[in-house]
Amino acid sequence: MTTQLDLIAERSNWCQTHAQTVLDKMRGRDSWSVDDVHGLVPEPDNPNHFGVLVNTLSKSGKIKHVGFKKSTRPAANGRWVQTWVVKE
């Protein structure tokens, strides 16, 4: 049986594994959103991990929020998503 602690560890491992890839690929872009992260790194077991990854990068001061845009992913149904830049 999977416990809550197992899920937290899985999420943490996935985020740590892919954080540097996101920073490297998004560095130098005018802005990007979580939409751009989909397809850049492997799909996690839980799609909420994408948001956790972006939040982790933000809280660690590695990226900066610069605005909003409507999501282009069909699964997001046009909801507003935050846009970011990688801090130099």
Could you explain how this protein is built, in words?
There is one protein chain. The chain has 88 residues and is of the alpha+beta class. The protein has one domain: Arc Repressor Mutant, subunit A. Helix content is 44%, strand content 19%. The protein contains three helices and three strands. A three-stranded antiparallel beta sheet has the order 1-3-2. The longest helix is centred in the first third of the chain and has 23 residues, at 4-26. The model has no long low-confidence stretch (mean pLDDT 91).
Q: What's the layout of helices and strands?
A:
Elements: H1 4-26, E1 32-33, H2 34-37, H3 48-59, E2 63-70, E3 80-86
Antiparallel strand pairs: 1-3, 2-3
Helix pairs in contact: 1-3
Keywords:
alpha+beta; three-stranded antiparallel sheet; Arc Repressor Mutant, subunit A; 88 residues
Give the number of DSSP strands: 3
Side by side, the strands of the main sheet go 1-3-2
Ranges where pLDDT stays below 50 over 5 or more residues in a row are none
Ends: how far apart?
43 Å
Q: What is the name of the CATH architecture?
A: Orthogonal Bundle
Proportion of residues in helical segments: 40-55%
Order of helices and strands: HEHHEE
CATH topology: Arc Repressor Mutant, subunit A
Mean pLDDT value: 91
Number of domains: 1
Query: What characteristic shape results from the CA principal axes?
Result: globular
